[in-house]
């Protein structure tokens, strides 16, 4: 019969820290992706709205 060795607390702690680190990295990656998508949506909305119209005073100055 073979007996299995139990994991040491040190190994379990290292594995837990590694899992937490990977979760944090994934969360940052998703947050960055959402921020980029929001920025792209804002730029798209600005492009659809078109250029802002010039004030009437500027138009009057160019005509005279």
Q: In percent terms, what proportion of residues is strand?
A: under 5%
The run of helices and strands is: HH
Structural class: mainly alpha
Calculate the mean pLDDT score and round it: 83
What sort of overall outline do the alpha carbons produce when their principal axes are compared?
A: rod-shaped
Observed structural traits:
mainly alpha, rod-shaped, 77% helix, 64 residues, 2 helices
Describe it.
The protein is mostly helical and 64 residues long. The chain has a domain at 9-38. The chain is built from 2 helices and no strands. The chain has helices spanning 9-49, 56-63. It is rod-shaped, with a radius of gyration of 29 Å.
């Amino acid at each position: 019969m073979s007996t299995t060795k139990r994991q040491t607390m040190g190994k379990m702690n290292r594995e837990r820290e590694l899992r937490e680190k990977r979760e944090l990295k994934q969360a940052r990656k998703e947050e960055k992706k959402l921020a980029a998508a929001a920025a792209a949506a804002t730029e798209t909305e600005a492009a659809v709205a078109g250029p802002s119209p010039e004030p009437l005073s500027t138009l009057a100055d160019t005509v005279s």
